Known about the structure:
The chain is 41% helix and 18% strand. With 429 residues, the protein is an alpha+beta fold. The strands form 6 sheets. Strands 5-4-1-7-8 form a 5-stranded mixed β-sheet, sandwiched between helices. The termini are far apart.
Amino acid sequence: MLNVEDWAEIRRLHRAEGVPIKEIARRLGVARNTVRAALRSEAPPKYQRAPRGSVADAYEPQVRALLVQWPRMPGPVIAQKIGWPYSEGPLKKLLARIRPEYVGIDPVDRVSYEPGQIAQCDLWFPETPIPVAAGQARILPVLVIVLGFSRFLSATMIPSRQAGDILAGMWQLIFELGRVPATLVWDRESAIGGTGRVSVPAAAFAGTLATRIRLAPPRDPEFKGIVERTNGYFETSFLPGRTFASPADFNDQLGNWLPRANARTVRALQARPADLLDTDRQAMIELPPIGPVVGLAHRIRLARDYYVRVDTCDYSVDPRVIGRFVDITASPARVQVFCDGQSVADHERSWAKHSVVTDPAHVATAQQMRCALGKQRHAEQQAAQSGARRHGDGHPVALRTLPDYDALFGVDFTPSTPTAATAAEANTP
């Protein structure tokens, strides 16, 4: 087959220099008919391989019959139904080609964002495990928020994907931004809108900030494509070549890197996010005078085992409030416990799994309480053995005879059983 270079040379020699066809064929070592064909062609030659078909072609009628009734049937189920004997690659290609005929095509328009209107939110899970305790490392979520107009990035690692921790991270990033976007776009994250409706904690958070949370349609990552692409940008531009000693170290490195990321030129905007941030912020809502309720919170009655559980970790509490209700609040940094408004525990939060955090003062108090209780029980046992009762402070309790109580209450006790003398008198005729 004639290559593109020879095709171009043939046309140049004949049209520009007027070289005859026979001479062109001699110079290039090709047939004269090849030269004539090149001169007649208006497009360069292109190699096209003849279609060979696919092993999936024989199964196409069966696949189409299934898609008529169940257009969204998963590929593995289809493979099982038709007895597919090969690897999944050819069947996937067949489904990608013919499935749109049955489910339809949902085109997506290009969207332009106005200043202050939208921020897209998502959780990014870095592949690098983060050390959280001696011998324990975890893959922790990173909350990412991207402003739609300026593409300004902000992110922070959080201890879990529970609602309280996610909302605490959102409040931290929004507070650092200094203003509130009009709409926060989320996918169907279980703590935010896993049921298709905004969860109660998330709705309360949005109401306090005078914003709204908009949920993306199910299985539609393009709906919040800006933040999805940002997650990929973190994977390729921030993560490679880095090691982390702790979650705090991760957040420090991320915080030092984000200004550089926000100073880059975004191709879609032909501008830098840092330069557009002021315009974006001016159109946003002011921060509320009182911050929203965030973090984990619950209320329990403190058991004899004077520990409370927060996200699989146990934290000690002052044992003097055993048996009373305590209120537990946990932020990403601290775990605090209150009883009747008084602080009875304050710990640094552990991001490890199934760890136990103990305050030595609580252990010492529990030991003192056990010693005091042991002394009291010992004194009671000695008093019981000696026949004397004692108060809790140790002094003896006076024990009185029953006639003393009869005299005290003015009772004249007369035996109801007759004596021998009176019985004899009664029997005398």
